[in-house]
Amino acid sequence: MKRIIWTAIVTALIIVAIPVLIVASGAINMAATSQPSDFEQTVATFAVQRSMAWRIPEKSAVPDSDDAVSHGLTHYASMCVRCHGGPGVQPEEFALGLNPPAPALEKHLDDFSDEELFWIIKHGIRMTGMPSFGKDHSEEEIWSMVAFLRTLPNLTRAQKKQLKEAIGDSHANTREGSGGARST
Asked: Does the pLDDT value for residue 157 go beyond 50?
């Protein structure tokens, strides 16, 4: 019986010690210019999905009104377009340094439910550059952002113009194109 207990203790120590030694050795390149491995991406994606599954609201409260979409557009233009871009609007140059890159939302909206989008906007995602907006925005404002995001692939000319004006004439936005971080 003692042998089984000692084997379990030694095995547990090895399982903990090896990853700690690898991290402590500095063998893992944590530079933002270093792309994460497939293993890191898989583990991080799984962790975020499981975290959301435990915490997302049970029921969507996406408002169905033009006012809500307009309000969401105003928030997106002031806080999101610089990293995520939008239809016809490139993200700002600094967003190229994000690792992982900010997704081009109009291309990835189908990957998320309304509740997941709400949770991500409200709480952010650790170690990705995605901040939490829940501390300074009401739930109603966040749901309006979700309402706007659902319209992102089909923006009007006026809405696209509003997004471009939010970025201005910065160096990174002299090119036309779809939003989302670009690879160089």
From this structure: yes
